[in-house]
Every structure is written in structure tokens, then in C-alpha cells.
Amino acid sequence: MATPQDYGVLGQLPPTRKTAKKISAREARAKKFHFFETFFDFIRNITVVVFLLMKLSQYNYQFSPELLAKYPTENRDDCRLMVVNRKTGKIEHKMFKDVIDYFSPDDIFVFNNTRVFPARLYGNKEKTGAEIEIFLLRELNPDLKLWDVLVDPARKIRIGNKLYFGEDDLLVAEVIDNTTSRGRTLRFLFDGTHDQFKEALYSLGETPLPKWIREKVEPEDEENYQTIFASKEGAVAAPTAGMHFSKHLLKRMEIKGINRAEITLHVGLGNFRTVDVEDLTKHKMDSEQISIPEHTAAAVNNARQNAKKVCAVGTTVMRTMESSVSTGGTLKPYEGWTNKFIFHPYDFSVADSMISNFHHPMSTQLMMVVAFGGYDLIMKAYQTAIDEKYRFGTYGDAMLIL
After folding, report:
1. pLDDT value at position 86?
2. Confidence category of residue 107, pLDDT binned at 50, 70, 90
3. Helix axis angle, 375-387 relative to 364-373, nearest 10°?
4. What DSSP state is assigned to residue 326?
5. For the whole model, what pTM was predicted?
6. Which of 18, 136, 225, 306 could staple 119 via S-S, CB 3.0–4.6 A?
7. Rounded to an integer, what distance in angstroms lies between the CA atom of residue 204 and that of residue 173?
8. Phi, psi of 144 (to 5 degrees)
9. What is the dihedral of CA 154, 156, 162, 163, to 10 degrees?
10. Where does 225-313 have alpha helices with state H?
């Protein structure tokens, strides 16, 4: 028989059934409180992380102009490829021609088939003869030969001014509207058909290679600053991730049974526009014209239904596809415009892999890549790229995110 001493040095009696129930209820409440305290701590931490990743400053890294490639590799698919696995966190170093080793028959790559046109012109202002630079953005009215352009220097280019281009003033344009601080609407004065006008205009233009690559455009840039499958004219900047694909690599993909599909996003200068607000929710993207053909939507949806990989070749492809997704998560055909801005947190609906170049700090492209690959992993990959001397920018190396 138990004695009081068996229950402790104070000789406490065992709890009665009623007391035991109170203790049990108190312990249950304590456990419940601990659970909710832990849960709310988790939610609070997640909220802090999400809030931070909506801030521009989180997308900065130690950047140096020496990282930028001034020229592409001799063969398009001879550049380096960093392979980043989101599930395992593994980072591999390959050549771009190895990219198909990570894909199987009936997987599908989606490309942007936009074509860059010679958008940069140099001319002179009437009377003063002052040199000016015109950057063509898009044609507003073919019949009236109206164009949306940027001018530099802008402060002296006013409505009513006439601008002259080419030897013997082959082309003349009149400024008819101010659109932004640097933006103008020009009406070109040209006697001839629209085809003759475009031929004359493009003969005076040069490849719109970004000036942070090189100040002077070289003849080779006309071919280099273009994908080999470019077919739909309308871009003032190249979809750079697609520039790594050579004819030989596309043929190897075909032999392996990897499928191809195309969308169009006519890349505008908004692609390079800096983000000037700390709160990313307040940043507005420029609208860009896009097209998703029915056969592309069908091919992508078929791949997803059969558990095949869908690889978005570049941020322009990812933006285009994410701009036209049904409530059921399928890709829809679409013709129109998009100003979609993708940053963390974002739930991607279509592609499960993507290819991208190494982008500038605090750029909208980097923000999208981080949203897809995860902040910690992608920023680690960028630091690895710097340490391993990868080439950044338009003519640089590539990253495959799985």
C-alpha cells in the first residue's frame, strides 16, 4: 500500500479525479496556446520576408561593369550555362550546348520570335544643324507615317521643329506632339509607298545595341543582336535568352524529340527602365505588345497535361505566358498588350523551368528570376557567377532554372 511519502518529499497525496481533470485541461490549454504562438510566429516571419522582398534594395548585389560581356561567344551555344535546381539547391556549371541533357522527348521550349529593327537614327535639327539622336519605339499610323520616338537631347526638340536625316536630307520628320520628357511623336514627310518609306528609314537606322555594352555599334551586331528564329518585326531590344540557340542546337533538340513553340513579345525600352521606387507594388511596367497563337497554347497545355516540362526561354516568354492564364491554369491564346510585373511572392502557372541571362542589379528581370527560383538560391547563384567569372548582360552567359 502506498504511503504519503511515495508521492514526494512533502508527502503530497495523489490528485483526485476532479483535480486531474483540471490539470489535464490546463495542459491542453497550454499546448493549444503554444501551438498558436508558434503558428503566429511562423506567419509573422513569413510576412516579414515577403515584405522585405517587395523592397527594391533587396535586389542589389556587388556589381561591376567588368562583369558585362562586350561581345558574344564565337558560336552562340558555346557560352557557359549555370544550372540551378530549385528542389535540391544544387548549382552546376555546364556549356549552353548541354542544355538539352536536362530535357526529355515531348518536353517543350517556348521562344520569343520577335525581330529587332534598326531603331536608332542620327540626324540634325533645322536651322541650327544641332546633332540629335532618335530612338524609334513603334509605328503609330502607317498611312500618316507617325512614329512614337525618344529624342536626345530632348530639351531643345519642340513641337513644330523639323528634323533631317541622311545624306541630301533623305528623310524629314516634323515633331507634332510631346509624350513624355524625352518622348515625341514624329510625322515623317516622304513621297513614296509605305514599303519604300520603311526601306529608307531602316537604311538610315542602326542596330539598337544598348550603350552600356558598347558605345559604337559594329557591323556584326546586326546579326549577333538577333535570335536565329526572329520573324515578327517590332522589337527595339533582343530577347537575349533566345540568342544562345544555334541552328545546330535546335536540330539536336528536334532529333531528341524536344518540341518547340513560339510567342511574340515586342520588347520595348521599358525592358531597360530602372525601378525608382523602393516599394515594388508602386512600380508600373510599360505596356508591350504580345501574341500567343492558338497552336502554341494547345502545344503548351498538351505538354502540361502529360506531365512534360515547359521551359520559358527568357523573361519575355514568362511574362507573356503568365499574362494569359485561365482560372483553370491553362494557357490561353491572346493578341494584345501586357504590363504585367512579376516579383515575389508570385505563383507561376505555366512554365516549370526557365532560361535567363545574368541581369543587372535591381532590374525587373532579376526580380522575376528571383520570384521563380527563390530569393536565397538565386542570390547565391549570382554570387557564384561573380566568383566563377561568368559573363553578365545581353551578350553574356546563361542560367537554366529547373
Report:
1. 97
2. very high
3. 120
4. -
5. 0.84
6. 136
7. 13
8. -90, -5
9. -50
10. 247-256, 294-305
